[in-house]
Design a protein that fits this description.
It is a single chain. This protein is an alpha/beta fold. It is 41% helix and 11% strand. Helix 1 packs across helix 19 and helix 2 packs across helix 4. The two termini are 24 Å apart.
Length: 482
């Protein structure tokens, strides 16, 4: 790569996105692009054959040839929703084999940049780690919190421009984000939350898991991530006993909270489990154990006299294991609100909120609440109570008490939204969902803007990765930030 023009992009395409990514790659303005998958015959290249060759070679590990250290392999396994539920020896072999396959990929393609959707499994995690060791920047492409916009990030850190966004734009975006009707684009409206839907969801995904498992053996691809992830036996999948979740919800939640002051109510805005944003944005592996983190935090807050108010994620209906809710209900005064109650309504009802990386943490801060979050892309110093280490769970009452709530709310909003605006650009990420219906021109426009953004913020431009994510920044051996 020259000092002025990146010209070779390596692109990781998740299941059924390879055609869209190839069209994006062809219109980035780069001379070359290579779309890679883990499915034989799909994309320009597939890591499958090299992966299985390495996996089936006795005694072969990537640490022996200096690719991933043992602490790095431990970190890779702990973050992947599939590997952490597999037998330890198998998970280690898969991580090492993927490192060997990814090294051959990087040697062959020799890319200037690595592009993907937000990292959500061990395959893209390993490729990004090995790319980082070579000085190749990773750009994770996803939707911005602002409608119709896109942002780039890496490991939950927003890849933001040094340029300040115009005040008029920030003011307009604040108005959008604080509108009482605002909801992230992924939140479905008018969903049915019924026992029948629970049963239908459970039955569908059980059947799907059996079908995928059978299919993976027939095509001799038993370790492909997408097929493994469908297995019903993974520890986070719902069981028959979880269909009783309706009995744990409090329809009379308003009456239960009537005598609790708003500033003593803590909204626990639950996220999807598993959630890639938790697995790959939060650095402390103890905090990645999300359910334990929630219970530890709730225990400390309840002991300090706060009331825990639980609001589950609407997309988690039919997938939530009741054991988490039962652990939270064991604390005195815990209230669980019905699924149909909106997040905005609960932000208005509670003076404090807690979420690891969810958008409700951003919305709560913009609404003037005390917002407890993890290392999320929208977190900015002084505007959130930020949990970075396991020890912070027990310290939450103290951290809330010391939070400076005297800052002018308008200034706080401007600071938060201004930061987000500097990391967002006008391009509709959702075009990938419309590509199969003929949205090629829309995708081409998106790709042109994406390419320009990468050139502006990459090594030939502001060089964000070197400035803001320097090598060696991790807090534990094996951290992806090292």
């Amino acid at each position: 790569m020259t000092a002025s023009t990146p010209d070779n992009a390596l692109i990781w395409a998740v299941h059924r996105t390879q055609d869209w990514w190839k069209h994006v790659g062809n219109h980035l303005g780069f001379a070359r692009n290579t779309v890679v998958t883990d499915r034989r015959g799909i994309g320009d290249r597939a890591v499958s054959e090299d992966f299985y060759t390495a996996y089936n070679r006795p005694g072969s590990t990537s640490s022996m040839i200096g690719l991933l250290s043992e602490p790095e392999v431990t970190d890779v396994i702990a973050r992947c929703r599939v590997l952490r539920w597999l037998p330890g020896g198998q998970a280690e072999r898969m991580a090492h084999a993927m490192a060997i396959a990814s090294t051959r990929l990087l040697d062959t393609v020799n890319p200037d940049v690595f592009l993907c959707f937000p990292i959500d499994n061990y395959v893209s995690d390993v490729i990004a780690r090995l790319a980082r060791k070579r000085g190749i920047p990773t750009f994770e492409v996803t939707a911005s919190a602002f409608p119709g916009m896109t942002m780039l990030m890496h490991r939950g850190r927003l890849i933001a421009s040094k340029e300040t966004s115009p005040d008029e734009l920030v003011t307009d975006l604040i108005a959008q984000m604080t509108d009482s009707a605002f909801a992230p684009s992924y939140v479905a409206r008018d969903r049915r939350y019924s026992t029948m839907r629970l049963l239908q969801t459970f039955a569908y995904f059980r059947a799907r898991g059996i079908a995928f498992s059978t299919w993976s053996r027939l095509i001799r691809d038993p370790l492909r991530y997408h097929l493994l992830e469908a297995r019903a036996g993974l520890g986070y999948k719902s069981r028959l006993g979880d269909l009783t979740i309706g009995s744990l919800i409090h329809p009379d939640w308003r009456a239960r909270l009537a005598d609790v002051p708003r500033d003593r109510r803590v909204l626990f805005a639950l996220q999807l489990i598993p959630e890639a944003a938790i697995d790959y944005w939060i650095e402390d592996l103890e905090l990645v154990k999300h359910e334990d983190m929630l219970v530890e935090s709730a225990t400390a807050l309840a002991q300090a006299g706060y009331t825990i108010v639980v609001k589950d994620h609407p997309l988690q209906f039919g997938f939530r294991q009741v054991k988490l809710l039962k652990r939270l209900l064991a604390l005195p005064g815990t209230v669980i609100v019905p699924y149909h109650i909106s997040g905005n309504e609960m932000i208005a009802e509670c003076g404090i909120s807690l979420t690891a990386t969810g958008t409700l943490g951003l919305q709560a801060a913009l609404a003037g609440n005390v917002s407890i979050v993890g290392e999320a892309y929208y977190e900015t110093p002084g505007n959130f109570v930020t949990m970075r280490r396991w020890e912070d769970c027990a310290r939450l009452p103290e951290m809330i008490a010391s939070f400076d709530s005297t800052t002018d709310q308008r200034s706080r909003q401007h600071h938060i939204v201004g930061h987000l605006a500097s990391g967002s650009f006008d391009a509709d990420f959702a075009c990938w969902q419309r590509f199969r219906d003929g949205g090629r021109e829309e995708t081409e426009a998106f790709a042109g803007k994406l390419g320009a953004r990468i050139r502006a913020l990459g090594p030939a431009g502001e060089d964000w990765h070197r400035r803001c994510m320097p090598v060696g920044g991790g807090r534990h051996p094996g951290s992806p930030l090292n």
